[in-house]
Specification:
CATH topology: Beta Polymerase, domain 2
CATH architecture: 2-Layer Sandwich
Strand order of the largest sheet: 1-2-5-4-3
Structural class: alpha/beta
Low-confidence stretches: none
CATH class: Alpha Beta
CATH superfamily: NADH:ubiquinone oxidoreductase Nqo5 subunit
Number of helices: 5
Mean pLDDT: 89
Shape: elongated
Number of strands: 9
Order of helices and strands: HEEHEHEEEHEEEH
Length: 201
């Protein structure tokens, strides 16, 4: 670990203490995982502590771990991961929190600390179904308001559940069940029995 990352690690451990569920370093980046009960307090410390000063949230995204590691994942399913930047210290950190309930994933909103997270949390809600308690305007942002389900969940069907089309008789857009037939989408050359055997042509 470089001197700069070592210093960041020490500052994080000193400021967050027992709020850290795990702290890992990989590829020159540090990821801090916290429990849902400590999420807001830890985020406030990351923002306010002068030794950290993560005043800018660059991104927040939802993650569905249900098929992680080819289905060997045994932890909680949904997480929110935020990328933070300290301009003062010129370092970055990733904070991750898993929702306690897989059936109804809910986390506290970070909008009171970083107002710019508003649309990122709306995106995580829209695509993954993660609710953010206290969010000022939690509604869909990418899909249609009538959309059913959350399309980035691993169990969401690739073809979707409904399709829309313009009906000339009704003179409006209508929704109907998907009419796409399941089909093989693997390129034909990969489906060949001898694929990869360069000795036979």
């Amino acid at each position: 670990m470089s001197g700069k990352l070592e210093q960041l690690k020490n500052n994080l451990e000193a400021a967050l203490g027992s709020r850290i569920a795990s702290l890992t370093q990989a590829l020159g980046e540090i990821t801090v995982e916290v429990n849902p009960a400590d999420y807001i307090a830890a985020a406030q410390i990351l923002h306010d502590d002068s030794g950290l000063a993560f005043v800018q949230l660059m991104d927040l995204c939802g993650v569905d771990y249900s098929a992680y590691g080819n289905g060997t994942w045994e932890g909680r399913r949904f997480a929110a991961t935020s990328q933070l930047l300290s301009i003062e210290h010129n370092w970055r950190v990733r904070i991750r929190v898993f929702a306690a309930d897989d059936d109804f994933p809910m986390l506290e909103t970070l909008t009171g600390i970083w107002p710019g997270v508003n649309w990122y949390e709306r995106e995580a809600f829209d695509l993954f179904g993660i609710m953010f308690s206290g969010h000022p305007d939690l509604r869909r942002i990418l899909t249609d308001y009538g959309f059913i389900g959350h399309p980035f969940r691993k169990d969401f069907p690739i073809s979707g559940q409904v399709e829309m089309r313009y009906d000339p008789q009704q003179k409006r857009v209508v929704y109907q069940p998907v009419t796409i037939e399941p089909r093989e989408i693997t390129p034909r050359i990969i489906r060949e029995d001898q694929y990869g055997d360069l000795g036979k042509h």
